Amino acid sequence: MITLNLREYQTIAPHLVIASASNGDAGSPHKHQDTIVDRPAGDRSDATNWLNMVPKLERPPQKHRTTLAFESGADSRACEQFRLMQHRLVTARPTGGVVLITSPGAEDGKSLNCQNLAWALAEAGHKTLLLDLDLRRPSLLTSLGGVCPQSIEQVLKGEVTPEAAIRAVGDLPLYIIGLDKAVSKPVPLLRAPELSNLLKWAQKNFQWVLLDAPPVLPVADVEQLLPRADLVLMVVRERVTRRAAVQRSAEMLGEHLSSLIFNDVTMSIAAGYGANYDRGYR
């Protein structure tokens, strides 16, 4: 297996910011560039008071496992890295926007980075919404140890409204519309007008909307989402992500790709990110 180190990532994509996302306290932080490619953001109004009435995400003790850096220790090095990432994101786009987070394939820590970045944004006081759009292998609810009576699949099918499916995560201005099981035919849902309606609703009510998107290489699902995002971030992991996978993914994302999240610490997400992750995309 041919993998990459940080310097080689910069050679492949010198115009992209490289941010270090760590899940531990050991080691020295990488140096970072200070710019993110910016794109115009649409007008977004403040969320109305109805958000204060949103039910909290149920997190039964038997399902609740702490996999997020901020729930493991808010003063950890990992949390500081995500706070740095959110600061640069907000500096680049003060008005907020829709951020799509993807990765070349399995074992890159895409969903965990998405959740921790969302938590950092909410901690800083920004109304933030997480949408689980990795419909073939959803993992946000599993990582949070949560359950939702209604899912994003039902929203995309027009069976329930976003207001019925949304749940608040903890006491921060952090919200989620999740999915607890795989969708057998996701592409029609990603092409449906309900997705456009959902994102318009989300942009009206939240400053930041983070899309946990499918990985780039196993299937073409992510291509349906690219035009809908203001920023596209791709998570790669040193010594794990293959050189060819990074190159091919960057080519497929093309001009949509805004930045890399350089993830250099082994992360394990209990469901959806093991050795069999790609099987869900076959």
Automatic annotation (TrEMBL):
Residues 22-42 are annotated as: Disordered. Residues 31-42 have a biased composition (Basic and acidic residues). InterPro entries: Bact_polysacc_biosynth/exp, P-loop_NTPase, Wzc-like_C. It comes from the Bacteria. Keywords: ATP-binding, Nucleotide-binding. This is Mrp family chromosome partitioning ATPase. It comes from Granulicella mallensis. The lineage of its organism: Bacteria, Pseudomonadati, Acidobacteriota, Terriglobia, Terriglobales.
